[in-house]
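REQUEST ID: PR-0412
SUBMITTED BY: lab tech R.K.
PRIORITY: routine
TASK: structure prediction, single protein chain
INPUT:
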Amino acid sequence: MNNNAPIAIFAYNRPSHLKTLIDSLKQNPEFRKSEIWFFVDGANNKVDQKKRTEVIRLIKNLNHKNKKLVTKKNNVGLRENILDGISKIFEKNNKIIVLEDDLIVAKNFLNYMNQALVLYRDKTNIFHISGWSPQIKFTSQNQTEFFSKAMFCWGWGTWSDRWQGANFDSDFSDLKADNIYELNYENNMLTWNQIIQNKLGLKSTWAAFWGTYIYQMKGLCLNPYKSLVINIGEDGTGTNSRRKETKSIIFDNENTDFFKHNLNYVEKREHREMIIEHYSNEVNKISKFVSDLAYYIRSYRTINYIYYSLIKILRKIGIKH
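STATUS: complete
OUTPUT:
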């Protein structure tokens, strides 16, 4: 019996990125036996329409016996396309693997994801399976996975019963300053700040709400020690990313011997400190300073609302933060 999770692929106007993702998926033996859903957003302008047409042609020409294509008439944006697509799959399935078109996956990615979605199905404090991990060095040479409170969304999976409780419009008013500081990894990974940015219209994202909900529910995320995913979308083409130099990651392509060690269902301090170290090199220093100040005076919401409201005003007059 085929127990592979359906794969949701979200695309828009980047045919070359999508082809690269599909080519990497074809290296996974499980790909041919998996149900593949493509969700393509509607075009926002004539230039995007041409590229979107190429994306749809690429999908239609894909030789896969169990593929489905869902297209939007109008442009709803990445957030709504993802939320709608996941809800669609969960109408008839209880698990899912989610990919965006700017990713490359290792040839053992689907093996890892499907094993994890079966193994942790009944561990209801495990909410999220990530295929991507930061480039960090751990002391353990034996384990292949670790748990974190951090949610990484570059190639991931979950179950319908975990997903259904999430509110993607919540302001998470029950979280106190210490909670937010922990969720934000001592203000080096500003997950909660994105909630405010969404409320003010500076962003339109879904991941921060999912990550904050997992934290609110005292949930954990499973991650591989060696990343099984590369993001190639930080080239200025993505909806929510600025241009960056893509960091190379050496895939753990040969390993299929996952989940051989019993893990305690906790985030170890070692792993937390490594995540903090990784994001401390990437965090916006002004935003971190403001959030540190907000934490120390116990006024996260007020201070950050003022800060991001000022950013909104600056953007309106043409000044970028």
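NOTES: The first strand starts at residue 7 and ends at 11.
REVIEWED BY: pending
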